[in-house]
Amino acid sequence: MGRYAEAEPFYVRSLSIREQQLGADHPDTASSLNNLALLYRAMGRYPEAEPFYLRALEIWFNRLGENHPNTQTAWSNFIYCLREAISAGQDSQLSQHPTTQAILQQLRETD
Fold this sequence. Notes:
Blueprint: H1 4-22, H2 27-42, H3 46-63, H4 69-87, H5 98-110
Helix pairs in contact: 1-2, 2-3, 2-4, 3-4, 4-5
């Protein structure tokens, strides 16, 4: 519906509840992290989306493994976010996280 600003507090609250009830490294918490990242990406707020993707990916890699569908979906979402950040000229605003920087380098070389 495009009502992102209205949705944001609900996504933040969902994340907070899951962190409190399930713990910071639970796969369902990673789902909330990924959902919030998707929201920020949809809003064009790529630097804000990045840390949520990274946290979700870390949880899913550690808890479910790299071949799990959730991990693979989040990985694809993250790469798409970085592509959009490059297109929007916001890639310089992203963190120096090694994963982010490695993917950005690969994307710049292939695009």
